[in-house]
Specification:
Spore Coat Polysaccharide Biosynthesis Protein SpsA, Chain A; 44% helix; 15 strands; single chain; 530 residues; 17% strand; alpha/beta; elongated
Amino acid sequence: MMFRRGFILFLPRLVGLLVVACCSMSIVYMLVCTPKGDNQQLALPRVHSPTVKEGYEAILQEREEQHRNYIISLKKQIAQLKAELQGRTEQFKNMQNQYPNSLDIQLDHSKPEKAQANLLAFLRSQVDKAEVHSGVKLSTEYAAVPFESFTLQKVYQLETGLTRHPEEKPVRKDKRDELMEVIELAVGSLNKPDGVSKAKPRVYTASDFVEGIYRTEKNKGTLYELTFKGDAKHQFKKIVLFRPFGPVMKVKNENINMADTLINVIVPLAKRASKFRQFMQNFREMGIQQDGRIHLTVVYFGKEQMNEVKSILENTSKSANFKNFTFIQLNEEFSRGKGLDVGARFWKGNNVVLFFCDVDIYFTAEFLNSCRLNTQPGKKVFYPVLFSQYNPSIIYGHHDSIPSLEQQLIIKKETGFWRDFGFGMTCQYRSDFINIGGFDLDIKGWGGEDVHLYRKYLHSNLMVIRTPVRGLFHLWHEKQCLDELTPEQYKMCMQSKAMNEASHGQLGMLVFKQEIETHLHRQKLSSKKT
């Protein structure tokens, strides 16, 4: 009871103290938060001012007026920003209308400043469009553009290409020069004074480079991210660079008439009459019937099966009314380079496109047009990358029967591979072949002569067109690597033989065939028990 009575007596005092505290806090708040004018500030009512109530009302009215003015100011700023944004939008639309795509960007050399501004604007837009500052949504896992990583000595790449190595020294001059230029530019950027720090800046060199990654978006540019050693053990410096691609520019617009462009197909041969019969079926359909602007030169070594080969050629000539062929017989050991060289020099007519071919090649009429379009006397030679067929008995071993040849010619990873290490099938004008010096006739037997000719063209001023083509196939045949070959030739032959049989996965299935059969047998027994 005493506690309750004391509490009741203390309660009014507690309420009074809380009221005084609240008033004190309000006064402090107004002193601190009341905005100041240019030459004055709001103050609490003084002793000689009107009543306290009237003073507070005046203060509140003035604060309300200031807030109203502040809101009006904000609205004006928002309106100005909207107007500026609208202006920028109109400017961007005008640029789009003026340059709807990169093909329409013209660099007016009469107005260099405008041309430079247009080009810089385009290059900056390339950075904005590329995946540099943020990611983009991709439809599938295959749509991602992978990076390749590199150090001062090596490049680690996913697309191995001709070298077949997952890591390589940047032997290609263009790649080596590109990466060294990027590293030097990054070092220069790191050594550029920032104008803030007064301490003596550290001097970076290429030896501070740790690693980098880069990738190219085909229509935008190349992104580089380079990492350098920092000032302490676990500190690093990262430099991000971007090489934007410029606008697409029209270089040439020309009409090409290939109606009278003849192709001389030169085939060196020794024995292999059954393969030649298959080749002539393809030649008749694609070369004679569909294309019609073609000549065939067969350079035959020895006399064994020669009459059979000549009979096949003559029968095709009679049945197809085809007279544009030449048969040359050499009584010497087979040499592919010698056969092609003799066939090319035997031609006595006007300058002609030479197609160096083998008897186990299948080509389409579309390829013959590609052969014409990618060669130009004194300018271009064509080195197509053909699609090499795997062993059909392995590919279709689980089928009831092997499909026809035409049905086998499908470009898929299960059926074959791009033969990017081969340079034997090539199209070039006879004049270029003669001027470059022809084949190295000291090379005997299989392999090597085509690479030597290819290198001659690479060392010349002629442009070498190297690209995979969909209309040129190497048909599978069992490869024999003879003991007479040099060690280097024998190694090349065996590598080619291994590559020709089947894909990595298919060869793996053959290696583990017994293990797979044992597993299937156990499953079969298990299902019978249940």
